[in-house]
Amino acid sequence: MQLVIVESPAKAKTIEKYLGGDYKVLASYGHIRDLPAKDGSVRPDEGFAMDWEVYTEKRNRDQVKAIADAAKKADRLILATDPDREGEAISWHLRELLAQKKALPKTVDRVTFNAITKQAVTEAMKAPRDLDTDLIDAYLARRALDYLFGFTLSPVLWRKLPGAKSAGRVQSVALRLIVDREREIEAFRPQEYWSVSALMEHDGTAFTARLVKFDGEKIERLTIAEEGTALRAKAAVEAGRFTVEEVDTKPLKRNPAPPFTTSTLQQEAARKLGYSASHTMQLAQSLYEAGAITYMRTDGVQMDAGAISACRKAIADRFDAHFLPDKPRFYASKAKNAQEAHEAIRPTDFARERAGSGDEAKLYDLIFKRAMASQMAGALLERTTVVMRDPTGRHELRATGQVVKFPGFMAVYQESFDQKGEDDEDGSLLPVMRQGDCPAKKAVNAEQHFTQPPPRFSEASLVKRLEELGIGRPSTYASTIQTLRDRAYVRMEKNRFFAEDSGRLLTAFLERFFPRYVAYDFTAGLEDELDEVSGGRAEWKKVLEAFWRDFKPSSDEVMERKPSEVTEALDEFLSDYLFPPQADGGDPRACPKCLAEGRAGGRLSLRGGRFGAFIACSNYPECAFRRKFGQPGDGDGADDESMGTDPETGLPVERKTGRFGPYVQLGEGKDAKRASIPKDIPDFDLEWALKLLSLPRIIGNHPETGEPIEANIGRYGPYLKHAGKYAKLAGTRDVFETGMNAAVTLLAEAANRGPGARGGTKAQPIKVLGAHPVSGGEMKVMPGRYGPYVTDGTTNATIPKDVKPEDLTEEQAVALITARTEAAPAKKGKRKATAKKPAATKPAAKKPATKKPVAKKKPAAKA
Prior knowledge:
By secondary structure, the chain is of the alpha+beta class. The protein has 25 helices and 32 strands. Strands 9, 10, 11, 12, 13, 14 and 15 form a 7-stranded antiparallel β-sheet that branches. Strands 2-1-7-8 form a 4-stranded parallel β-sheet, with helices on both faces. Strand 31 and strand 32 form a beta hairpin. The termini are far apart.
């Protein structure tokens, strides 16, 4: 028997179909072990020795045992995990663990395939290889680096920076990008500028022309800086008679983008479908395991020759010959390490236009169209520029237009971009004009504009920026971004990242005390060194030694500082942010409460508290003024944010932050209504605020009892309530979207979970059988927390997954209960029973115990 190990059950099930009866395929459920989450798991003083432990979850332990048992019976072990560094690491862990358990077959092979298709799998089985030690070394180095960074720095944060939760090698740099953008936005000062344009018409076609020259001076974007000049320019255009002087027509050719890599897939899925990076990768994983697409963690942009041929055939079948270029298109890989540069993400079968359902289907459609477009002919466009001048030649208008002559790949797919440039030309169609024509002026407009600050990062633009800087790797971006959100260092509003106070404070701490380790070039350089290791060009322990040599003394030096010293240093480092200059020229650190009450010497400074940093007065306790970190103002309420007005009541809706997190408030005073802001609503706006403030929501009256069913959010999350009984909802959106049918079903299911369910309703049997022949108890099939089971009132036995509970027969029930009785738990019960017998006779035999009180009384009498 040949044992094949892959990561997931879905992948195992698919592969088992392709292999013969001599193969058994098992899943490892991803990584089987990791470094224990405690100090000392990596020991630099012992040559970076590492301790590993199997994941403690029962599913993982049971699966490892199943793999070990099967390996003992196997003649050959085939490690068929994913074709990247993490896949290589999983295979290495499996081999090491089985060797420790003395369960390793004589023959151990490693096979990889880029797609889960019969052809790819069978061909891979014919070309086994050894484990790639370079990739394993790169994994060990990366894992040790992340562990040493986190487990060395996190204790420093906990002791010196109240409220900080953790720091990570890549996570901290990604957070710095978001915070730096926040600083750029705060430092930005908008500039006023004006534009003048004329709405014109020629041969019945309207078009717009911009003023590009005024009084002989060329107009750039910021040239017209105030309204007076704009109005004079407008008057000049209105008074002038503009004649076409130049008509310039240029052909343009636009070529398709290459097929998706991991990062470009995450970016386009965010722009076009609104998916988060983690959601995109989950969908792609499912499509890969179903055999619909190739491996989704890749830096490569090239398709293999067979796929290119299949793609070109699909294009020829769908379009005429003009859409298929004479030669296949080839794209250069941007991967920094050839060993980790796999084929681009593409469909496994170009004859398959659809795969999956729901979000999976949308993502597959995106992948399919991008891959097909990459092999299509370029689009042919024509751009026309028309220049018009008045008789003086001192004023000039320009109109631009664009027309698609041949769509080419654009018939299938067009790449999206985060922003359209402010100077992008108009792509509208222009009428045919010749030199000497005089188009009619319909209107002239002068519009005021202001320069805009750089936009906050979206997931797509953050992923793009991380990749541009060479920080992290695309396969890790989803988990990195999710960690920032889980730690509440950032929040999402309208699909944009906003830095929270805790994130700003952490970034300031790292920049002040660990500047090298949050520097973009240092982190990118470390990634290059890890790539050198995976390419076999560097030794992994030397990379760790170089890092640890400087990092450990830096962390020890900060650990020796007093918390007050750290706070003082941060107070000075963040002075410009925390205490910006006052409009009246006053002292930004002067305490407003002390000034108002006539106290002298009140100075504001940064303080650390149990719940994080805050700003307080030096005259404490005489002056109790305080405000939240990073919120300039007069103290209490300074961190409030107005969200708008309730259209029904006219009361203001404000976003606030309290001791237990962010919340929204409607109105003021004792009558104000409040609601906590859930973490699972990334795009929180006024509409969501009003929804939360409207709770509870009455879905309707229960069809059986006639009593109302209520949906609400409580201390333990969203729930349904009916007649004193409760049912849990999956998320906040379900509170507002669950209908009557779904609500009745959820309440019924909750009631059937047994005495543990809210309301104490006893679970109802799925099926009632006869009496057990030995115990005499009535046998029932019951629903359980971990699945259906059969019981005779004394012994519970789990029903196998391949047996439907309602189809269980009396004979099967007797066999299951008997087998369970004879198993280990029954023996433990016997041992307990025998242990109780001597305990029952001990009170009579313990006569010396009655003598002890008497012995104690004698000394008391002597005393």
